[in-house]
Amino acid sequence: MKTTLITALLVAMFAVHAAKPTVSLDAAPFTTHSLQQVLQTTRDLGLSAMVAHDQLRVSPDDQAALLTPALDSAQRQAVKAALKTAGVTIAAGQFPAPADAQGWADLAQFAGDLGILRIISTPTATAIATAAAACAARKITLVLPCTTLPAAATGLDPLAAAVAALPTGVGICLDLVACRQAGLDPAIVLATLGRRVVVIRLNDADLASGKGLPLASTDDSSVQRLFQIMRLQNWSGLLSITHDQPDYSAIRQSVLFANLCLKTPADKIAALRAPIMTTNIADTWARLDTQTPGHWPKPKLVDTSMYRNAITGDNAVAMASSPGFNDRESVAKAFDQDAKTKYCTPSPTPWLQLQFTQAPPAPVAAYAITSANDSPSRDPRQWQLLASSDGEEWTTIDSQKDVAWFGRHEKALFVLKKPAAGPFFRLLIEANSGDKSFQIAELELFIPAAATTATP
């Protein structure tokens, strides 16, 4: 009997310890995008939950159809179908507070129809009970941003008292940016409010601007302390990740960092830094939890032993549509066979061109791109590789889209379906990862390693 009881207690303890937050994409920066685009981004990030906003367009063709209770039955069914197809749920929706009780009832019914589990809003103090009742009737949690409570301006103790006085079932959203602007430490707020906090909004932005908390910061540990408290409390609410801009690469790195923190023991989190600058990709991947949302397949080790670079240093001339910021970041640096240098330009979508002045021994059969040393938002995400015999008429020999880079100095290999002789080759960047600038460390054009005869 005693052994059975101990076993049961251990199982219960493990179950509590195993509880993890739901990691979601906050759609706040995607207000000019359609629901379909945000769903695709959510899936690209390896996530299955999102936080929606009332400015999100439900159709790319209808600018007026926003995610609000004004949607008719057919539009709601279309949204539900899109969510089901994508395998994504709306874990929370952030909406303006309705003006009256009927408005709250309509909003709760709308949220219930779409399977939205939480409504984040800011009802007046006198309307909180009405709003909470409307949400509870649809089994939805009403969530109040903690810094919108008047008590937040007077300190942590008054805030805790105000939260304790809220109706049972009303949750709190802890927004890291808002907490910082209110002079509150997010970790201490979570430690104080405990499980009344049901949503944590993590904004990866510039600390100096006051608009966010940089996850890779070496001089601030606010985010790390917050994750420590989350782990110690076995917090299992909704972790909403966003950015000031629709920067896919930055948000992706935030998801990776959250994954690392959720995997790491609480006493080790303080030493963590985001993998945004990692050059040891395999080591970073090994520390991720394969069961945590936001996980990516194991990075493939690039084997180029069957190829050799067709560029020898004196057999080709490089040019670009946009010059580098300076001589140290000129287009020539993309072809110098040194991953520590880079081509970096103020244009987000330039093209890079190489003309062989001496024909390589064989047609180009593959190519590789290596990410640069910093700023993942400058990485290429979509492009075409073109070939030409005269530099005037171009043929697409390869195209890539939605390419995600795991770390810095990462090499990705792309094999052509059919070798191309050139002698002109152009890498046409169609989209980067969200920055106003673009960069790569290397572009290599490969021929078979055994090739010995010159191309006719």
Automatic annotation (TrEMBL):
Keyword Isomerase: yes
A GO molecular function held by the record: isomerase activity
Domain F5/8 type C: 299-448
Signal peptide stretch: 1-18
Gene3D superfamilies, per database record: Divalent-metal-dependent TIM barrel enzymes, Galactose-binding domain-like
Top-level taxon of origin: Bacteria
Keyword Transport: no
Keywords assigned: Isomerase, Signal
Protein name, entry field: Sugar phosphate isomerase/epimerase
